[in-house]
Amino acid sequence: MSATFSPLKQIKKTVKDTLLFGNKPSPELFAILSVYFVQGILGLARLAVSFFLKDDLGLTPAQMGALVGVAAVPWVIKPLFGFISDGLPLFRYRRRPYLVISGLLGSISWILLATVVTNAWSAMVTLLLTSVSVAISDVIVDSLVVERARKESLGQAGSLQSLTWGMSAFGGLITAYLSGWLLEQFSNQTVFEITAIFPFIVCVAAWFIAEKPVSKDELVSQQDQSLIKQQIKQVWQAIKQKSIFLPTAFVFLWQATPNADSAFFYFTTNELGFEPEFLGRVRLVTSVASLVGVFVYQKFLKNVSFRNILGWSVVISAGLGMTMLLLVTHTNRILGIDDHWFSLGDSLILTVAGQIAFLPILVLSARLCPKGIEATLFALLMSIVNLAGLLSHELGALITHWLGVTETNFDNLWLLVIITNLSTLLPLPLVKWLPNNDPQVQVTDEQENIAYLGEAYEHHNLGTVPDDAIIPEVLPKFVTNNNK
Description:
It is a single chain. This protein has one domain: Growth Hormone, Chain: A. The protein is about 70% helix and about 0% strand. The chain has 23 helices and no strands.
């Protein structure tokens, strides 16, 4: 009998150890992964959004950069979504109804973008709604991820983070080439209509989340105790600690440095003449590279100290980012390298490095959260990272405008590339702010005298990946802003 089932057990073990990075399979885990998968698959519309803003609405590089920054606001106020979900259960549930709402809002937003948006203001509002949709669902699933990560060892916590972001990258991989190919076949609006289908997957996933209904007595108790007010007080007590504040400040300063993403998108399309179909190929390469980055971090770097890996990431990212000068100045042509091949190779290297650089930020944020408020504090930490991303886009847009880089004038783009890359070195002297070992031990020691009400249910996440649904396509990506 045991021999009959041994192959099945071996398959299950292989799936758990290899595909799930050691995480035990369950309906809830697959529901969580499906939400991250949708976040990645929404990349189907990334190119369409970029060309829609550039061609249909006629925005300049600076205007596009500014609009993208505004559209990232929901990722900055994510803790607010967590507080609402915690303090205002719908139909006696804190998570499932909000996942359903986020899915419906996402579908409606993409349909509006396909049908009624005709100017920059309406585009900004609609992209804000799409961003709100993804941010709400991300808050819900991140709470589950953080709660699981807190119960595991440091290595296993990194495995769970790698798995969720790997799933998002896998979703992006599936639609990478299609994002360009579809634009060759259909209009931007048609691509938006197709994208509107996928948020419904989040509605389905909601029913597989293991959640007990909130009792009436518990609701009354929460109202009497002013739970949200006390949670805010506890989070403030935690964030004031040096072991949490200093690493957070370092990551913020690093991620807030300006980027040239929007200007570089205009350069590759208007100056180099890259077509949507080729941009889809590059998205395919970068999606594969993201998975490679997840694997490399998981296999070789997850136990390296945060100070070492992030410190070296600052230096390496600045150096690799300078390779874009070869493309901007057309030096690659002098070297006999075609623009298309150079972009593919550069995107591959930069994306792998960017993924390796960003995963430690996620793991560090999870490990900084003290017991009892891990979900809410993680939401705040990720919102700070997202605020840095917003500032990065706005500063980049300001410098782009200041240097006179437009949709047709790229004379100073080389200077913009130098400024944005060298600025990433500014936080390097502060690398000692990062912990050199597991920060959870230090945080636990400092929290011994603080009383907690119990676990909050909500939290996060970067640009990342989730933010990619509204961030313009860039070839190649800057390492320092790969993300979120």
